[in-house]
Amino acid sequence: MTNIMKTLNIYKNTTLALMALTMGLSLVGCAEDSELIYQGAQQLSVKPLILDNKVSRATTASEASLNEDKLYNFNIKMFGEYNECKVDKTFTDGLESGKEEVIAQNNWKVENDLQEGNTYSVKSVANATGSGDVQTDVDIWKPYDATSNSNKKFLMSSIQDYEVTKEPTQTIKVKLARAAAKIALTVHVDVVGYTAGQAKWQLMNYNAKTTIFGDKQESELKNGEKVEAQGENGEYTVTTYSYATQWDDDTKAPAIYLEVPLTAADGKPEINYYKIPVRDPKATGEDAKKLNRNTIYTIDANINNKGGSSEIEYITAGKVVYDVLPWSDGGTTNIDANTSYLMVTPKVVYMKNVDTDMSVTYKSSSPVTIVNKKVYYIDNEGNTEVYSEGYKETFEETVTYTTTEQVWVKKHWDWDKMEWVEGHYENREVEKTEKKEVQFFPYPTQMELQKETDGENLGGKIVINSRIPKNRFSKYIVLTLKNDEGKEATVKYKQSPLIETQNFFGDYSSRSVGGWAYRKPNGELVKNGLTTSNYDGGYKAKYYENGDIKYFSNETSSGNTNNRMYIIQVSSTKDSKYNIAHPNIDKSTGYTNDEVVSPAFMIASQLGAVQSGTFNETTAKTHCETYREVKKENGEQVTYDGWRLPTKKEIQFIVDFQQESFKRNDNTTIQPIQPVLTGEKYYTLNKESVATGYTGGGSSGTYIRCVRDLTPAEVDELDKQMK
Prior knowledge:
5-stranded antiparallel sheet; 57 strands
């Protein structure tokens, strides 16, 4: 038996060797005849593309700032004639639209059984959050937000055919289409006799469920949360999303519910409600009750009447204008070639400490021009100053320069000439530093349309070149575009400086601990049986009324009038003489050794003014830790707790800042902030007091001025405020 097994093994091994040799010779021969195997580089790659879609004569673009072009993961599959999977490859790192990714190398045709001349079905999916043919995203309506929704993903897919050629290196270009529809709403509120407050919106009847490839309809209707719209002062924008949906009756139709507070001259706010349907007004039949995937629905709504329980009627002439266009190439949405439209995206741009922007794209069905340009800033008193070409601001700056002066040279021995040189004057270059008035021209040097192709201006980018503001206020640039068919679109830029100041009005101050007096939103003081002062009267709760700051206790004047809480933001440390960072506070002591300036902090208003003689180093710290200041805006109160003492460097920074000024074009002198530190000394978080340089006039003693670090969400909200 043993000898028989050995004989069989020898036979088996010999047979396998002969088969391997025969197979090798066979493949060599096949390579020479059909070039299935190549000597040199061989590679199969995929290039995922999120492309602007050509529609009629225009193109629409997505917004990178909203993560709409972001690729988190990408999977590609290739199927044969009998639906057998030939290729299944997933990519997760460093993905970008237009960047090639390698699927296979070397003998990729043989290894994946891909035959030259054969056509294969290619299915691709990007940003899928699970497996299966259906995906649910209850947060699909939420736009990207750096703080609260930073992982926003947009499901994309593609189905196409690909023919394998004889080339050794091949790239499959995959045009991805988004599964969601995008809804972009612009609202203009102008109701005579009323001032518009902060608008809120809610997307109703959005679809949270979709099939990956859109070949079937899935539905899970939901209502989004009520959130604040971007913008202010009657100009608002909303960006939201839904998966494709179809409805039989209008109760299931998608719509944006808008809530706008309107305040009359008497100061009493009224909440007004409006309903704005989301659909294609030009569609007919079943298509009129559809929201399609990979489609942008833009809505421009003008509100000039109080809402109450009424709605903005669907496609009311002159009130609501709709445009419906494909979102990206690769989708199946068909648009009437005769559609009239003007698309501008994004409509709000934030230029933070930068002087150039080309992020805005425009697309139109007819030639476009800029018909209006407005450039302005709003100072700390709420006054609007409009810039024009040639407008000049003047700043006093410390300037270092080189000049030539006659310098007396004493009698000395010249070692080169080996002789004495008598005393004399000679011209020499000297470096000098002095304060000089420097002119600054803030009007943008470039605000123009850069068309994407020769011929008629049907699309392209808006080019902005504007010097970064030096006056510590944000500059606003508003452009109105108009096409030959009369359609208009407005885009607004907010250009913020290196160091920026903003302010808002405090309504009252108190304590964040229980038992203290407070004020209701309607202005009523609540103080009976509650505490109104402490530290032997060193701090008294106060409120603002008719231009005066008064005490809760006896409702008499405190002698102060400035109820502005100032906000200072430093967006860059470049050229700063201060170290910009959040102070690291010792939890055991409540103090810090850091000599830094917070990148974004608030300064309490004079509602928090104290009597200096009743405080010491310790009580000054605890005073700020429990200080509370409340603002009222559009009838709603916002409470600010979490205050602290400023650092030494923050005191010095504020003193420097409040001494700044500049001259407008008419030579009027403007200060970024009114003086808020006028005492001789101030307590600090570094456990020592710092002198300000102010003396006399009742300023002697050591005072307290509380500051508060802004949260990332508050900074983001301020950055996005438009005025």
